Amino acid sequence: MDPLDIMTNLERVAPYYQAIFSADTQEVIGYEVLGRYQMENGDVTSLGHFFRDTTVPSEYQLEVDKVIINKALTYYTDNDCELKLFFNQSADLLLEDQGESLLELFLSYVPKGLKMENIVIEMDEHSSKEDNEYLQHLFNYYKTYGIQVSISNIGDAGGNMDRIGRLNPNILKVNLEILRQSYEVAAHQDILHSLAVLSRKIGAALLYENVEASFQLQYAWRNGGRYYQGFYLHKPGSEFIEKNYAKKILIEKFQQFIRYEKRKLHAIHQFSGMLQNRIQPLLSKKTEMEELDGWLQSIAEEMSEISFRMYVCDENGFQLSSNMLKDNGKWRTLPSSKGKNWSWRPYFLEHVMKMSMERKGILSDIYSDIETGETVRTYSCLIAQGKFLYIDIAYDYLYENQDLL
Ligand code: CA
Question: How many C-beta atoms surround the C-beta of residue 5 within 10 A?
Fold first, then answer.
């Protein structure tokens, strides 16, 4: 669409609202304000392209944005709304006047009932070419008025964690578009998981957007999502909606997710207990324990349908035995792994401590094996003073026991 057409028909520019839901109350907590343009044939089209197009003069963009904000805040205050309003802003446009005109615009609605703490500035992670420092300064300035800051679109490339951390946003908005199919969850799990960790570290709430299917909502729920937004729950419209608009479906879905999660936890617990029971009698072969490789060989047949690799380490992670490796259905001993150290692995020492104190085996989370690239879990347990057995569970076994995946 020609930008000039928009500029000469500003009365056709209008805000649309997409609701944002909270996990704890299952209610609408606010709306993202989206720019729309009503065409002559009555169709309503997004102004997203107009705002992202760098060939459109910035005065045009600022002017249209002002129309949208004015209309939204008039509607908001006329309806005595007390929820949050998220406004998309580009860092470069905002920094043209250090955010002053936008701030004044917001402040002019305070006498009409607007509370500044209900304003959220939403900024695209990639929108700024400027030095981060100016942006950081601007955000701090806005925060002194109570305005909140949200950084969006960090899901796709992972963004720059360090940079995001320094901007210290109130909300991190993660785009779930990358999870188009449920099988893609595994591929993006790590980057999305690290965003969940980051948000927890910097004390920002996680908002998952573009939730368009049940499995995406489930992902968001499992991964620290406090807020949700997307077609699955609500399509943008020209009016605000009931607070309880999606409450029924959210409660129903949460109960379904919880049942699923509990079933998995139960399966993990059962499996650990079964392995524990299977290993217990093998520990009494005291003489063979002196010679660990021999002992591993003696228990290998017992573990054949479950494991593809086993070894023994001491409490500092030094490998005491060779690797017992199943190769084409036959167990082989690989002495070259003897003496390697595994203490640098995530959770290694934490798990050793737990196994020693609680005298119980531990089933690890799901991860990609460094050598085979396969999806595995590792079961580990104390077998004698200062000796810990590690059993890598084969993917085939996990696959046949779906609740373990
Ligand atoms: Ca947005």
Answer: 12
